[in-house]
Amino acid sequence: MRSMKMAVLTLMAALTVGCISVDSVVKVKADGTGTLEQTMLINSSAMGMMSMMGGGEGKDAAPKMDPAVLFSKEKLAAEAAKMGEGVTFLSSEPVTQGEMKGVKAIYAFKDFNTLSVSTALPDMDQGSMQAKGKGEKLPMVLTRKGGTSVITMDMLNELAKAEAKGDTVKKPEGTPEMPKEMMAMLAPMFKDMRVAISLEPQGTLVRTNATHVQGQRITLFDVAFGEIFADPKGVEKLEALGNNPSIDQIRTALKGMKGIKINEVEKLEVEFK
After folding, report:
1. Spatial CA neighbour of 19 closest among 240, 242, 231, 229
2. 29: part of which helix (H) or strand (E)?
3. Angle between helices 232-239 and 247-254 (to 10 degrees)
4. Beta strands of 85-211 (E only): which ranges?
5. d(CA 271, CA 151)
6. CA pseudo-torsion sign 268, 241, 232, 180
7. pTM listed for this prediction
8. What is the residue extent of each domain of the chain?
9. DSSP state of 188
10. CA angle 97-101-102, nearest 5°?
11. How far apart are the C-alpha atoms of 136 and 132, rounded to whole Å?
12. Phi/psi at 4 (nearest 5 deg)?
């Protein structure tokens, strides 16, 4: 399943970006309108340590990243244009979770089908410190069915179309190989890091075949880095996958691994009213 590839590659990409946590919750009404709530956090101290490990020091060191600058209202408002037609920035508030600091931003959308929900990490841009988040748009579609609405996410169909075009999903360039000693050092830095996307229908949930459901909230994708780094053997399995791993190779790597939640159905369906 392509969702498995996104889970693995988001993990690998995050290792090159730094200590970032993004939790996205899509709250959608039966008429297709709704809000996207994004909690974005960074551990600036840990990112500074990683910069030092990379050889930056003195005047050449990367500046300590300031959440107030990275997630200013101006930057958040500009991000709305990238999220789809009719998406607008509503508000933001500062958030602190342990050593992580950032914001909770709320966006409104007029049409679920034009909303771009992606596994991408946020762009990091402050002075000389720049990193571009990369990810894939989740192929979700909302349709009306009698008196209810149905959201589908057809991963099998998307994978078939990609393979028909000859597209491949590759490990990000520049992803470092990580010795066991380095993994042990980085584990505390990544303990609060997480990338997650959830769907929360507003109204009555009629049915769903999703793997992870709690009340109204359906987890589409969740990578908890602290749990993953607690198992160095699991990280070694991921690193051994190389470029463009097969579905069977990814399934084997993820088997029994803690910290990764993805839907195990080929075509996700959520019906609500």
Report:
1. 229
2. strand 20-29
3. 170
4. 88-97, 100-109, 124-126, 129-131, 140-145, 148-154, 194-202, 205-208
5. 6
6. negative
7. 0.77
8. 2-272
9. T
10. 115
11. 13
12. -65, -40
Q: In this structure, what token pair is assigned to residue 166?
A: 């000859």
Structure tokens at 34: 């709704």
Q: 92 and 104 in contact (C-beta within 8 Å)?
A: yes
User: What's the one-letter identity of residue 5?
Assistant: K
Q: Tens-of-pLDDT digits for all 273 residues of the chain? A: 444 455 554 554 554 445 778 899 999 999 999 999 999 998 766 555 544 544 444 444 445 668 888 889 999 999 898 899 999 999 999 999 888 889 999 999 999 999 998 766 666 555 544 555 545 678 899 999 889 999 999 865 555 555 555 554 444 444 455 556 666 666 666 677 788 999 999 999 999 999 899 999 999 888 887 787 777 777 677 667 666 666 567 666 776 777 888 877 878 999 999
- Residue 257 identity (one-letter amino acid): M
